[in-house]
Design a protein that fits this description.
Length: about 375
């Protein structure tokens, strides 16, 4: 791999051209995964889930990475991603540190992100990060790639400290896309999985990094169709439409949840990402328009096998009454827990203990 590119030149590459540099030494973009990767991650997540059910299995998992130290560097609000990474790291025996508040780190003294990353990798073997800048994870990745420190993998190879994006700006949330695919495949298993299905994506698709990353994975599935339902000002970005067009994924737009619900095998709701509004007054939130709000009536109109997903946190775009109904189609709480198993899976793979994990799971 060429690492003589400057950081500026690396950042200037289109994301799809950065992908070959990443290999399996980090997770930055949904576009870096193939169908074989996705199937493997799903299999690993299932294996971790079943191992963790028994004390011997849990002890085995916790032995895999107990010599490693992780940093959870989350300088943007997070509950689920932060907690599920922490839980997944603990399950694999990783030691953990976190930086969550830039005001009490040297960043407040003016240290650059590049210098902060160089510092972090002096102490840790993995950085999971969430940052408001679209380029932050790529900056960290390239810094680690060109930095002094290497870790040794089980096969003896020496690699830079891996960087995992837990959400970068408004553009990417690749590990969320992995857990969403895992949830979709599991929920739609009785009807043959995600291949050939129609997904309705609803809400703020312009600044929703979850729906963007999920859309980037759809060319890996056979004949998946996407329907976008977003208010005019929050329509899906042109870059995603172009990406789908170039790969023959069919998509269409509708102007309400109702207009897509009968065709949908899965509905993916999102909140308005109003933290990006410059003029937002503190504590207030932009309300979802009624035509993009999910109510009990919509449950009646959903297909019998369909799944309802949401990356969470949710607000008024979901009627709270939906949580009180016992209905298997409401998948978002299972989706949240699936995130923890998927993060066990991707950490196992990053540190190349994935085959060992599968082998042991197969004997139990
Ligand atoms: C999402 C995010 O941070 O992008 N949350 C998450 O990680 N589950 C979605 C959101 O904040 O709306």
């Amino acid at each position: 791999m060429r690492i003589d590119l400057s950081l500026e030149d690396f950042l200037a590459l289109p994301d799809t051209e950065k992908v070959p540099y990443i290999g399996d030494r980090g997770i930055l973009y949904a576009q870096q995964f193939t169908r074989a990767d996705l199937d493997r991650y799903n299999q690993l997540a299932d294996a971790a889930r079943s191992l963790a059910r028994r004390p011997e299995g849990a002890s085995y998992l916790a032995s895999l990475l107990r010599h490693r130290m992780a940093l959870n560097f989350f300088v943007q609000p997070s509950s689920r991603t932060f907690m599920s990474f922490n839980a997944a790291e603990a399950m694999l025996g990783l030691n953990r540190m976190s930086v969550r508040d830039p005001a009490i780190s040297s960043m407040s003294k003016g240290e650059s992100l590049v210098d902060s990353i160089r510092t972090f990798i002096s102490y840790v073997d993995l950085i999971v990060m969430r940052h408001a800048d679209d380029d932050a994870a790529a900056t960290a990745f390239w810094t680690a790639t060109r930095a002094h420190r290497r870790i040794t993998l089980p096969d003896g190879s020496q690699v830079p400290v891996p960087i995992v994006s837990g959400g970068s700006g408004t553009t990417q949330h690749p590990t969320q896309a992995l857990l969403d695919v895992y949830t979709l495949e599991r929920s739609l298993r009785p009807v043959g999985g995600l291949d050939g299905k129609t997904l309705l994506l609803v809400g703020d698709l312009a600044r929703g990094r979850t729906t963007r990353s999920l859309a980037f994975l759809m060319p890996e599935f056979r004949d998946v169709r996407l329907i976008f339902a977003a208010p005019e000002q929050y329509r899906m970005g042109q870059d995603v439409r172009d990406f789908l067009d170039a790969r023959g994924v069919l998509w269409s737009e509708v102007d309400s949840l109702d207009a897509g619900i009968r065709e949908a095998d899965a509905i993916y709701l999102t909140r308005i990402q109003d933290e990006h509004d410059a003029d937002r007054s503190h504590g207030s939130h932009v309300r979802a328009e009624d035509r993009f709000r999910f109510t009990l009536d919509h449950l009646d109109r959903m297909r019998p096998h369909a799944a309802l997903l949401h990356p969470l946190p949710k607000r008024d775009e979901v009627d709270p009454a939906v949580d009180d109904v016992q209905d298997r189609r409401v998948a978002y709480w299972r989706q949240e827990r699936n995130g923890m198993w998927m993060r066990v899976a991707l950490l196992a793979r990053l540190f190349r203990v994935d085959q060992a994990l599968l082998d042991v799971a197969a004997t139990r």
